[in-house]
Structures are given as C-alpha cells and as structure tokens.
C-alpha cells in the first residue's frame, strides 16, 4: 500500500500577491501566523482519522515573504506528536550542510522516545543561499543546486559528513572523531582535561569515555533512539543521480521533488544500488514522490484551487528558484498561462477526482513508489479545504495506487 505523507510549513495566508506586498513582511505577521497555528490541531486529528502515514516539516529560515515559514522543525514535530495517536511525525528535512549534527541527533532521538518510535527523520542539502550561508558560515557552506561545481562538491561533502555523524551519535555508545569541521571531544588529540566529574564518569559513564589519566577521550550522545537502530531516514532530493546513489547505499528513502520522467529514470538505479548493498527492495519500494494535488468537483474548480492556493508561491518562489521555469514564465499573467506552466513541471495536478487519479495511476505505473508526499500549502489553502482534499485523496485516489504497490511497512536490510 502507498504510504501518504503531508508536508506542512506553514505558508502564511494572503488574499493575493498584492496583499502580501501591502502587508510586508508577511512572514512576521503575528495574527496570520497564529491563524495558521490555530488550524493545525484539526488538521492533525483529520490525518489520524484518515490513516495518513506521516506529517513532516522542512527547515527554512528568513522567509520574510511568508512562503515557507519552518525555522523550528523540532518544535513542530514535538507539537504534532502531542496532537496525534497514529500518524508518524518527522522532518523532510534538517538541512545538514548547516546544522550541528550532535544537536540534530539528540533532538530526533528524543522525539523518537516521545512518540515511542512513531517518528522519522529527513535530511536535505540546502539550496537557499539567503539563510544557509548565514547559518552555515562557520562550516564554510555555500548553497548550490546540483551543478557539479566546486561549491556543489563542498556542500555535498559537508552534508554527507554531518549525516554520518548523526548516525554515529545514534548508533555508537561512545566515539571520538576528528576532521576539518569537528573534533569530538575538544581538543581531540590531547583529550579534555579538568572535567570535574572525571572520576564519576570513569566509573558510571560509557566505557572508554575517560582514560586512566583523567582525560575525556570520547563523547557519549544521549539518549539512544527508541527505534532500533534508528528512525527511518528520508532524503529530500530533486533526483540527482549522486543523491539517488547515496541514498541507495545506505537504505535511506529518497523523496523526489521532480517530474515523473526523472523519477522513473533514477528509481531503478536506486533499487539497483540499494540491493547491491544488502537490501532487498522491489522496484519503487523505499522511494517517495512529492506532488501538489488540487481536486475539484469539476475541472474548472480544480484549476481555480490551483490558482487560489498555489499560483502565488509558484510564480514568486518556485519560478525564480528554477531558471527554466522563470524564463518560461516571463510576461505570463493570465490564468491559462500560469496553469500551463504549473502543468509542465509535472509537480502540480488539478482537475476532478478521476482526472487526478488517472494522472497518478499513470505515474505509478512508471515508478510504483512506496510513499507519496502531498503539499497543500497550508494555510494558503484554508484548513477546511485542506481536510476535504485529504479525505478525497485518501478515499478516492489512494486505493487506486494501492493496487500498484505491495510493500511491507518499511524495507529492511537483508540478513
């Protein structure tokens, strides 16, 4: 069965781009942010009732325009955990080219305990220079898209090292580590002297944490995750082949923010690499596709939903992000033009239930992904409408995709 995830930021509501301009900076508008927060309990309860697999947040900062306000994803997921009983909570994800890996390991392991294993963790490389180069300046991060440049390689190197450190902190009782970025403990080579609990730590702490000379030689990150060996790991990706292969080697779940053509091309490579590394995945298993559906009673109503809920962020955020979209969008102002551009991306769908369902069936025949991540741009999409959209998807679209997939709850490494 397909596992449905919902991505929430929130997007701060505005009646139009003009209102967003008049009320700038919308990202700091207290009343509208409160409005978005106030609707979350009802949405999370609906997810629980409808059988949604998971809800996620994404780390973004400085969104003064109000488009993706997600600066505190650990707090979001902790809050959502308390509002739900069944739905899994997590991230998609922590931007590991800027974050402190020890803090991420601690925070996510704690969430894993709060939920008794009802959580997942996502990692992303980071592409938004406005904030990643502020938060990542101490580790030398430069935000890039996957262009193979020197900056791109530097970003990937930092990202992969940081993710590996989270895994070490999750799975190793105590460890030491040294690189150009980090020393654990600090200082690493000399060992830390003067730890006032040294004698106690030598007797009660992790073996090897203190040496016989009274120096701290390892760190012990607590708590260990509730899940064994750790929560499921998702990787946010636009389906670059490097990221697909990276995820496959580790059994991570890639979430493709890309058209079905690229997903269908790279999906088999993911399965091949994963199975070469001891996993036993079927085609599409342990992979996720990300989509933005708008389902109306008529085709025109679905199109109007796409305009009301997604056209603003599409033209002002997604468009400038992707140069080819921006070029195609120059001078485009009519509803027909904007909808045409949204349709060409392969990410946005609008129409009746049968139209959207048939669209997804065709995509799942090309890559029968185990997961689908839905983005509704709440709270630009009103709470009541988002709940209706979820109900339609879960009851009238998902069953058709379930027939094309047959996977256990989570793929496991081969014994």
Describe the overall structure.
By secondary structure, the chain is of the alpha/beta class. It has 2 domains: 3-172 and 226-296 and 348-402, Alpha-Beta Barrel (TIM Barrel); 174-219, no CATH class. It contains 14 helices and 12 strands. The strands form 2 sheets. Strands 1, 2, 3, 4, 5, 8, 9, 10, 11 and 12 form a 10-stranded parallel β-sheet that branches. A two-stranded antiparallel ribbon has the order 6-7. A hairpin with a 4-residue loop joins strand 6 (177-178) and strand 7 (183-184). Helix 2 (30-50) runs parallel beside helix 14 and helix 4 (101-114) packs across helix 6. It is globular. Mean pLDDT is 93; it is low at 410-415.
Could you give a short description of this structure?
Helix content is 46%, strand content 12%. With 415 residues, it is α/β, with parallel strands linked by helices.
> How many H/I helical runs?
14
- Derived structural class: alpha/beta
How big a fraction of the residues is strand? 5-15%
Query: Which fold name corresponds to the CATH topology of the largest domain?
Result: TIM Barrel
CATH homology superfamily name of the largest domain: Luciferase-like domain
- Give me the Rg, rounded: 22 Å
Reading the helices and strands in chain order gives EHHEHEEHEHHEEHEHEHEHHHEHEH
Give the end-to-end Cα distance, rounded to a whole number of Å: 24 Å
How many beta strands in the DSSP annotation? 12
Question: Any idea of the CATH class of the largest domain?
Answer: Alpha Beta
What characteristic shape results from the CA principal axes? Answer: globular
Given as residue ranges, the uncertain stretches (5+ residues, pLDDT < 50) are: 410-415
How does CATH name the architecture of the largest domain? Alpha-Beta Barrel
Total number of distinct structural domains: 2
Average pLDDT number = 93
How can the largest sheet be summarized?
10 strands, parallel
